[in-house]
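Let's practice the habit of predicting before peeking. Look at the sequence and jot down your guess about where helices and strands might fall. Then scroll down.
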Amino acid sequence: VDAITLKRTAEPGTETKLGHGLMALDDAFAASAPAKRKSAIEAAASLPLAEATTLLARALANDADPEVRALAASSLGLRPSLTGSARSGASTDPRAEVRRPLRAALEDRAPRVRFAALASLLEIDRAEPLGPVRAALSSQQPDIRIAALGALRPLLATTPARLPIAYVGIIIISLGEAFFDPAAQAALPNVVS
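Done guessing? Here is the structure:
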């Protein structure tokens, strides 16, 4: 993707600015207005380039605005190159680059960012959903641990043989913690229904 900026009357000797389109997108990620950064995230999400995925992961990890971080987290979960399982014959898993910032976002101070990160992890690893659930159960945030329990419910119904006894123990420990954590108690009835 190349960006070429020309004035309306491009005459010989007129300065022409040539640059790669991702550089312009990178500049938009650094804009002071959150609306511009959100637009940059939407633009990056539409590009099927590894560099665009890197920009989204960086926005998730570094942006000051929780709305922008949540949009970046959600956008990572919608990347076609990341969802499902690793490409056959690929030497590296393209999902590995984004798992780290998404897992770190499970500890974000903004709940919306945490939930967007969990949803994206579950989408990216939909073929093997126990990894994201395990990461969420290890979170310091009670709401994310409870959401992980909710994500386990459909797995228990569809693939009980794939869930080792260790996960049942994690569930019991998490439920026990929820009874002692006032923030978690409010959400517990929704999980154990």
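How did you do? Strands lie at 2-5, 17-20.
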